[in-house]
Amino acid sequence: MNFFHLISDLQALTGPIILVGGTFDGVHLGHQALIKRAQEEARAVDGKVVVMTFDRHPASLLRPALAPTLLTTTEQKLELLQKLGVDAILLLTFDETLAAISAVDFITQLTEALPKLHAICVGASWSFGKGGEGNIDLLKKLGEKFHFSVLALKPVEVDGSAISSTRIRKAIACGKLDEAASCLGRRYSLTGRVVEGNKKARELGFPTANLSLPCMQLPPDGVYVVVVTVGGKKYQGAANIGHCPTLHDFPFPKTVEVHLFNFEGDLYGQELAMTPIAYLRPEIKFPNLEALRLQIIKDVEAVKILQV
């Protein structure tokens, strides 16, 4: 599979091209339906599917105070897109220069780089160009001018409601992990790098990996049953999301700490994927460290009984 970072790089591609555009945060079932439709079209014309997306959520530049939390890191997103079997990915750097390109100029650049652009496949509410000025109606007019078709798909629904990244974020924030999984087509997973913590959990006999998860959507605070993937291997574990009130005075920054069962080794600096399976209990401020230690023993025993 090919990776491209500039629109002009697409000139290396030959044959009919079906371009799929979107932010693709989460690569949920709606996104997957777009790619499936593009692949059907590609098979019909012996063409290739190219996914066009960004290295950051556009709102993080355009409206940073209102930028949403993320369902996937860029690396996660690219890995999920690869698994769907697309032929190439155009990962654009979303910066001030790209944000300033008009809708017409943006499509013009694509058609110049892809003289055999056969179709653009997007969601029915897709917007593009400076300030999101471009919509499906404009895209269809440009398609007539530059001789490509527009495949605009309606939202996919689960339980009678449209799937969207916003809906999934809200579900996770409310602890509705099953709803999120139904929309994603898989369990929600948090990927981050292990950073150094205060080592208090180690002193209690339960060393934890502290995850750096900037901008990621977290489920509600509490203790969770989790499955952790690191170095290609899976481990059962227990995770705490919250402010560790027994160890720290309020306010204290939120942390994500996970204790892996049957793991030996150094995790510092490694990338770790944590999948919450079930909510175990809320965070509690214990009167002392011994009370906390005894509760952790109970938590670990409860998780092991579940055998996830």
Distance between the termini: 34 Å
How many strand units?
A: 14
Count of alpha and pi helical runs: 10
The CATH homologous superfamily of the largest domain: HUPs
CATH fold topology of the largest domain: Rossmann fold
SSE series: EEHEHHEHHEHEEEHHEHEEEEEH
CATH architecture of the largest domain: 3-Layer(aba) Sandwich
Rounded radius of gyration (Å):
22 Å
Briefly, what CATH class of the largest domain? Answer: Alpha Beta
Percent strand: 25-35%
How would you describe what is shown here?
With 308 residues, this protein is an alpha/beta fold. It has 2 domains: 157 residues, HUPs (Rossmann fold); 117 residues, Riboflavin kinase-like (Elongation Factor Tu (Ef-tu), domain 3, Beta Barrel). It is built from 10 helices and 14 strands. The strands form 3 sheets. A 6-stranded parallel beta sheet has the order 1-4-3-2-5-6, with helices on both faces. A 6-stranded antiparallel barrel has the order 9-10-13-12-11-14. Strand 11 and strand 12 form a beta hairpin. Helix 5 runs parallel beside helix 6 and helix 7 runs antiparallel to helix 8. It is elongated, with a radius of gyration of 22 Å. The model has no long low-confidence stretch (mean pLDDT 92).
